[in-house]
Amino acid sequence: MKTFLLTLLGALPLAALAQQPEATRPPVTYRVGLRRAPLYRRAADTLRPAEVFAPSQAAVSVVGELSSRWVVVAREGFRYLTPAAALVGYNPADADAPPLSATTHRITYEGVVQVPGASQADLFDRARRWVSQTYNQQNAEVEREDAASGLLQLRGTRLAQVYQDYQGVPRATYAGVVRHSLSIYVKDGRYKYVLTDFVHDAKGVPNLRSGGALEQKRTSLFGYGGLGSYQTWTELKTDALRDARTLVAGLEAAMTLQKARIQRSASDF
């Protein structure tokens, strides 16, 4: 563990060693991985064995980032440093506000990506192949597939999960699906995507209600609107929108035959 921490510390600015962790971004809840996470009150403390830990699977709230490898977490009224690698699915982009369409006011990921030299037919084939590899017959319904106009539309579902306590230990459990709609438009040398209409459906999971549209700040997943329901709903949304960004990146990699780089503008199509 000490070698692991010293490796992470190598990326930490020397001037930051004596600083106390500061909250610099909106809180995002993550779960500790299979190993407990060491917690440090100051950067300099990371040179010594940790005295405080967050248990495996425990919820911690990330409120800042000291470096690419160290994050600031709030827990039980205090702020600590912990390795980002100790948290499941940590992604700095989770703290960004989701993009809202000015027209529909729904969470919408959209953009136009240039693919020089690729014909409309090539791009349509790539889009169709990506859909078949990313979805299966159970989690996608293709509503329109028109090669002549270059339009591919579908309604998809992605699995959702929530954390619930079992004998005092939090465990990830199946929580239905998050539905979405995806439209892909292709022309010679470029394509446009619109990923939107995110809705949680509990699909009959016992003791769990459907949350509905992800734009909602609060919902009653358990039949009440208390803190437990709010935290669970927030975690579910964070996971779902991280997955949406993964879909967009996967589509770009398949369409451009290159690794996805940046989010694209929705104009110029």
Task: Summarize the structure in words.
- The chain has three helices and twelve strands.
- It is an alpha+beta fold.
- The strands form three sheets. Strands 7, 8, 9, 10, 11 and 12 form a six-stranded antiparallel sheet that branches. The protein has a four-stranded antiparallel sheet with strand order 1-4-5-6. A two-stranded antiparallel ribbon has the order 2-3.
- A hairpin with a 2-residue loop joins strand 5 and strand 6 (78-83).
- It is globular and about 65 Å long.
Strand content: 25-35%
CATH architecture classification of the largest domain:
2-Layer Sandwich
- Per the principal axes of the C-alpha atoms, what is the gross shape? globular
Secondary structure class reads alpha+beta
Instruction: Specify the number of helices.
Output: 3
By DSSP, the count of extended strands is 12
The number of domains is: 2
Mean pLDDT: 90
Low-confidence runs of at least 5 consecutive residues:
none
Fraction in helix: 10-25%
User: Can you summarize the main beta sheet?
Assistant: 6 strands, antiparallel
Given this structure, which CATH class of the largest domain is correct?
Alpha Beta
Distance between the termini: 51 Å
Rg measurement, Å? 21 Å
- Listing every helix as H and every strand as E from the N terminus to the C terminus, the arrangement reads HEEEEEEEHEEEEEH
